[in-house]
Fold these 2 entries.
Entry 1:
Amino acid sequence: MTVLTSSTINNFDGSDLLPPDYAIDIENKRINQDKVLNTHGKNLLDLCLSSGLRIVNGRLLGDSLGYYTYMSKNGFSTVDYALVSESLLSSVQYFKTNDFTYLSDHAKIDLFLKCSINENTEFKLDNNKWKSINTYKWTEQSKNLVINALSTDYIREEIISLEILDINKTQDGVDEAVEKLTDILQNISEMACKKFFGSNKKRKRKKDNLGQIM
């Protein structure tokens, strides 16, 4: 019978935990001050194993000891994680678990990635497009209206069209699928929710007789 210790779980690259074809990070073993493994932790490890993800906590400069990220009346634990793919792990330059403050029972975590950015590059947004964006508000009648919208031939055909769409595994393919899904959600919202027309103009705030801003 194989016994799994907490140190084996925390470094989760033991041969008794991983499938034979799993790429092991021999040079970057994890250190974790939290030695308790619960159901949520086991599910997280299963996700990493099945998806080829790596836990950054306790591996790199800034958190080399695997500090706690959560405190409560029952003690300290590590529940806030940064996950990256195996290919991205070498691009992680720095990871830090910050000190606890009175603002939260969780410690803030920071992740710094190596990247190449041209400082002279300008990112411009088309303001005309933003002016035409509408917002929708859920009302008491919206639930039944959504059900009715999903029953219409038009919406059903749109959903089927998306389901049978041959999506290319490229940026353009993903963009096309997202655009079709957005159109479906917007059409349903048009039928079921209260519509507000978008505008980039700031509303003027009224003053009462006392001169206070309302």
Entry 2:
Amino acid sequence: MSGLQQWYFSPIDMLKTPSTVHGCTLEEELSARQKGVELLLRVAGQLRLPVNAFVAAASYFHRFYMRNSIRDYNYRDIAATCIFLATKVEECGRKLKDVATTVLFKTNANLKPDTDIQVLETSKEHKKWTENILVYEETLLDSLCFDLVVESPHACLATVFNSTALGTGKHELFQVMDIALSQDSVSEGPQVLDSIVLNAWGIAHDTLRIPICLFFNARIIAASCFMVSLVSCSNLSTEWTDFPSPFDRYLSTDPSMLGWLEKFSLNFSDIQQISDCIFIMLYFYKTSEPNERVQSPVPYQQATRSAYIDSGAMAAY
């Protein structure tokens, strides 16, 4: 098996990862994965990395722990190394000392914003981080078999939704769908449609925290993010997390539903995978705390301004 196919697993495989073989519970491993991705996202944000870079870093991170144990490799070390490697692969290089400095700030609560950077860069702790990143980079590359190709659900969403349509609500996808909205939502018109798009982008960020990239391809994940956003923003009386009830309307083989699937280069044969993906995503939202998410799926009236700011990242694609 070669290429991307070697990085696709069944969810049941999470019960027999190297970490679980070494005595970690599934909950402990998922928690460590989530903390590791949270760290690399914070570092990526501070370094102002493009979306494709931190998506790649998160994918490397999840792939690494399918072949290595968290008991053997601390998630902080691997998260920092994944970021450094991703900046090279995605051609948005950052100096090693800058990555180490940022990681040091994000992992040491005692450091204050006014800390002298030049003094910090001569510290033993900084030297330790730079050395660790260089050492673990070779281990990371070996574990990844130098296969650094990553599919991005964000890129899929950016292809389906043109950022120039934001503010108008005139997204082609909605023109081929019969969307069920509440009476209040209908009165808002374009705003709710824009919120669905932006919320899907935020949900795609959240999926990086769980190893869903190991189970489904980017198109399935992107379509699932859109579905979760659509149902949660529709503001219907049905609780949107009560899967599969609120999703039945769209995840059917009715010919009228083929249009939206085709926009994601999918068809009716992919509905089961989309359903499975949504189920895993909803479990994450039900069991995680709000501060563990980039952006929760919320009714459009509660959509945060940060989502609109983040729309600039969509334009970058």
